[in-house]
Amino acid sequence: MTRMRILVLMHPDFMPPASIEGLSEPEYAPFKTEFDVVATLRDMGHEVIPLGVTNDLGVIERAVREHKPHIAFNLLEELAGVGVFDSHVVAYLESIRLPYTGCNPRGLMLAHNKAVSKILCKHHRVPAPRFHVFPQGQRTVRRPPRLGFPLIVKSLTEEGSIGIAEASVVDNDEKLEQRVRFIHEKVGTDAIAEQYLEGRELYIGVLGNLRLTTLPVWEMHWPNLRPGAPKIATTKVKWDLAYQKKIGLETRPAEDLPDELENLLVRYSKRVYKALQLSGYARLDFRLTEEGKPYLLEANPNPQLAYGEDFAESAHAAGMDYEPLLRRILSLGQRYRLVGQA
Q1: What is the full per-residue pLDDT of the chain (342 aa) written as tens digits?
Q2: In three state form, how does the secondary structure of the chain look?
Q3: Cβ neighbours of residue 185 under 8 Å, at least 6 residues apart?
Q4: Whole-angstrom Cα distance, residue 145 to residue 117?
Q5: Is the entire prediction scored with pTM above 0.90?
Q6: Residue 192, phi then psi, degrees to nearest 5
Q7: C-alpha angle 225/310/195, rounded to 5°?
Q8: At what angle do helices 259-275 and 114-123 cross, to 10 degrees?
Q9: Residues 157, 161, 162, CA angle at the centre, nearest 5°?
Q10: What is the rounded CA–CA span in Å between residue 245 and residue 251?
Q11: CA 25, 234, 202 angle in degrees (round to 5)?
């Protein structure tokens, strides 16, 4: 790959320093992805321009005029503090005809809405838990009779386990209403209650635009989790380093999966990726029940790219080290056909 000028889009709070030498893990954890991507791209010989973006897309326009980048490496997960607005950023990049890494705006919008994505995937013969949406402003929280307990209550659109705790798993209507109100009032979005399934938490990374490559099946383990606690990726599990160490959190290649099950997960993953019109790269989250049946939980376009995290580690297991992984993501961004492109 020839040397390029790369505009790396990120939240200004995560603008990385030149070096993390001397910093403790909790100190650099918030911007580890940004540091790993920027430092590695520079090591690869590219000219890298980190750019903080909050709610003013004009900063991108000014940076493009000044630096004339060949591509934008998109690490934004929100705009103006709203997670689903990240699709507006890439829509803007398409409007100015600047290639970018990661998912396109249509795929982001479809994947962000957990109800819409489940409906589409069920239409394409990918099993997903039953669910019901409770919109903000709805006076009553009335559970449909077909939706039995236990249920897990989440934000309909937020990612990164925002609003998810042990209390998210409910077993009666009173707790259901309490948790729905929590999502409405504290998270500030519609709520979705879906069938809670006991089982193994499996992840599959996918790379590609039209031709897709799947990465090895990955699994989350938490051997020291409190007995009886639901095995779910709560906010603490995702982001609290001390808690992760306490429960022995580890993700590694899934073991003891029959070949036919692995093949089925690969087929499901590609089917979901295409149904949601994803591009670039994504991670598909499944729950494997004790009966050995996989259910799609969520589709996550633009998953965390930090060195040593799930996506990069599964790529490494497939023979793709960190530099080749970023090179592949850049190449997919360059090859993606923008809307209106001849």
Answers
A1: 689 999 999 999 999 999 999 999 989 999 999 999 999 999 999 999 999 999 899 999 999 999 999 999 999 999 988 888 999 999 999 999 999 999 999 999 999 999 999 999 999 999 999 999 999 998 899 999 999 999 999 999 998 788 899 999 999 999 999 999 999 999 999 999 999 999 999 999 999 999 999 999 999 998 999 888 898 888 888 888 899 999 999 999 999 999 999 999 999 999 999 999 999 999 999 999 999 999 999 999 999 999 999 999 999 999 999 999 999 999 999 999 876 564
A2: CCCCEEEEEECHHHCCCCCCCCCCHHHHHHHHHHHHHHHHHHHCCCEEEEEECCCCCHHHHHHHHHHCCCEEEECCCCECCEHHHHHHHHHHHHHCCCCECCCCHHHHHHHHCHHHHHHHHHHCCCCCCCEEEECCCCCCCCCCCCCCCCEEEEECCCCCCCCCCHHHEECCHHHHHHHHHHHHHHHCCCEEEEECCCCEEEEEEEEECCCEEECCCEEEECCCCCCCCCCCCCHHHHHCHHHHHHHCCEEEECCCCCHHHHHHHHHHHHHHHHHCCCCEEEEEEEEECCCCCEEEEEEEECCCCCCCCHHHHHHHHCCCCHHHHHHHHHHHHHHCCCCCCC
A3: none
A4: 23
A5: yes
A6: -125, 130
A7: 55
A8: 120
A9: 70
A10: 13
A11: 95
Please report where in the chains the tokens 């995702």 appear, as a residue.
238
Q: Counting every residue, how long is the chain?
A: 342
Residue with tokens 């598909």: 284
277: Cβ contacts below 8 Å, ≥ 6 apart: 104, 106, 107, 110
